[in-house]
Amino acid sequence: MASTEEDGSVEEKENNNKKRTKSAIAVAWLTFYNIAMTAGWLVLAMAMIRFYIQRGTHKGLYKSIARTLKFFQTIALLEVVHCAIGIVRTSVIVTGVQVCSRIFMVWFITNSIKQIQNEESVILFLVVWTVTEITRYSFYTFNLLNHLPYFIKWARYNMFIIMYPLGVVGELMTIYAALPYVRKTGMLSMRLPNKYNVSFDYYYFLIIVMLSYIPLFPQLYFHMLRQRRKVLLGEIIVEKDE
Amino acid sequence: MTRPSLTSDESFRTLTAKMKHYEVEPNATIGEIKSMFHKSHPQWYPARQSIRLDPKGKSLKDEDVLQHLPVGTTATFYFRDLGAQISWVTVFLTEYAGPLLLYLMFYFRVPFIYAPKYDFTTSKHWVVHLACMCHSFHYLKRLLETLFVHRFSHGTMPLRNIFKNCTYYWGFAAWMAYYINHPLYTPPTIYGEQQVRMALVLFLFCQIGNFSIHIALRNLRPPGSKTRKIPYPTKNPFTWIFLLVSCPNYTYELGSWLGFTLMTQCLPVAFFTAVGFIQMTVWAKGKHRSYLKEFRDYPPLRSPILPFIL
Questions:
Q1: pTM to 2 decimals?
Q2: What is the ipTM of this complex?
Q3: Nearest-neighbour CA in chain A from B158: distance (Å)
Q4: Helix or strand (DSSP H, E) at B80
Q5: How many angstroms separate the CA atoms of A156 and A11, rounded?
Q6: Which tens digit of pLDDT belongs to each residue from B206-223?
Q7: What is the pLDDT of residues B104-163, one digit of tens each?
Q8: By the 8 A CB rule, do A48 and A127 touch?
Q9: d(Cα B204, Cα B134) in Å, to the nearest integer?
Q10: CB contact under 8 A, B4 and A235
Q11: Taking the domains of chain A in order of start, what are their residue ranges?
């Protein structure tokens, strides 16, 4: 469900009288990280486009980009560390939830359940993720370099309006498609009796995951809408004064 | 270029638009002012008022006296609504009664939990009966301590806390109880009966320890007061842990649940112990920090929750 992420940039804090000066190392590392991630997702995008142009079908597309996707999406765990050590000003929990939901989709759904890898819904969320991540990481990069082109800012605060719901649809449809295979194989499940006296049914767990989108998605969506009004519309008012 | 500040979730009501004027004696307390404010604003009872000298400053205490505050002949206070409040005692009683009753429902295998053929049957494992006694004793102890032992610093907490806390306690209790009392429950296998016995000893030791600490803390504070003092070891050997730890009540609580985990050898119990430990560590560190801030002569050897470690 993590099509968009809470913004951690220094710029978007109201009443920023106490400017936080990050250490030079932190800025250098973050710049490098965000450039690398932008590049990574661009590579993914191009690989996906090239596959589709060459083969004319989406079947087998996931398999062809699986390794790159797993690599760059898993590296995103570093973003939780960034928040934890304070070089990025965002809540650790929010970032953690976002990154974990991505990791979950990649490793515990798409990677482990081979039969659903050619579903259209997979392509849907892959496209959404790619577009969103390229926008997001380039936004952070330009921010850190203090040269933010307006169109990147515009993209970051407008694309999500469509991307986010589309991403949710793609993810939910994929999980739904995976359910019968989970049930049949009993994967990641544990039954009684056992010496740990616990049981876990991955099938019902997935159903709960799907249901949890209902309360969580609107919260994140409206949060981004509020951020958008603050950042984009706030700016317009000031320009009028000048 | 100043950006217009938009309303955030917790907007501060500056009373410039609706300023209320009160005449008070210089020796009036904040508590009395809150009562006056409550009379003119009946929806905001004193417990949900936060009164400050500065909109972004700290909340003033009820005991603070007007003439001891940095104000002149007129004083301007800022009010913030803390939201609906509920008393600590009510929250504690509710959140502890739940696990006590829920666990018993699973123990007696009330219908609709397990397969119908098991309704109202009893487990053949003696450790299951022992676990029920320990769990029930633990929450009974907590209920009695809430009623007769604890002396609370704050009267109330935000209402939404009761939903959060009850979900946590009741949810975990049900989850643990389901497996321990399950017809397919497997008694401890690693060290068998010896494991259960040692776990029971650990559990009882820590229950007595935890109770001793609660009594010691109660005795630090005269009835009706909110004073804070450094706790020290007493004649009771269970309190000697104060030499090494700031919040031994949490240390003993962790020990109790470790005992219960070993006794039942149940992963959900281990989870509950782990989550509780994390939360208690956060609380212990906070308490330790406030002790250090408030008391210059605070014993340096003490750690927040685990001797020398944490």
A1: 0.78
A2: 0.76
A3: 22
A4: strand B78-81
A5: 14
A6: 999 999 999 999 988 787
A7: 999 999 999 999 999 999 999 999 999 999 999 999 999 999 999 988 877 889 999 999
A8: yes
A9: 8
A10: no
A11: 23-233
